[in-house]
Amino acid sequence: MKTFKIPNYPNLEFMFNTNTYANNKNTYVGITCIENGIPEPYSDLTVNLCIKLESNQAFIDINNNERPLIKYLADNGFIYYMGIDCPSGFVMYPLFELNIEKINEYGGKIWLALL
């Protein structure tokens, strides 16, 4: 199974985990950190704003994820900004197209079975 590294943390490996939100089946993407062979939750990449989206779309949580991480994911073809933002509270969350095929290469739902 593939992992990826981000510039801010060169000694750590990361992978994705995917699922759907219960209320509207929008796509959820989380990031797991693997340190010393042990996977631990790192962040929720997506937020659910209760707007029904296509399965390859998600609002990205720019409030709780570091800008270099989001830039890395965009620069490496995991996500593509669609030019749309949606307010929730004091944050404007950007809508991204997800490269689900590529995301699943780096985890997806498969890794859960390995724990």
Characterise the protein shown here.
With about 120 residues, the chain is mainly beta. About 15% of the residues lie in helices and about 50% in strands. It has helices at about 65-75, 100-105, and strands spanning about 5, 10-20, 25-35, 40-45, 45, 55-60, 80-90, 90-100. It has a four-stranded antiparallel sheet, with helices on one face. It has a four-stranded antiparallel sheet with strand order 5-6-8-7, covered by helices on one side.
Major beta-sheet overview: 4 strands, antiparallel
Which structural class fits the helix and strand makeup?
Answer: mainly beta
Mass-distribution shape = globular
Count of helical stretches? 2
The largest beta-sheet arranges its strands as 1-2-3-4
* Mean pLDDT score: 91
Please trace the helix and strand order, writing H or E for each element: EEEEEEHEEH
The beta-strand count equals: 8
User: Which percent range fits the helix content?
Assistant: 10-25%
Could you give the distance between the termini? 13 Å
Low-confidence stretches: 110-115
Question: Which strand-content bin applies to the residues?
Answer: over 45%
Radius of gyration: 14 Å
Summarize the structure.
The chain is mainly beta and 115 residues long. The chain contains two helices and eight strands; from the N terminus they run E-E-E-E-E-E-H-E-E-H.
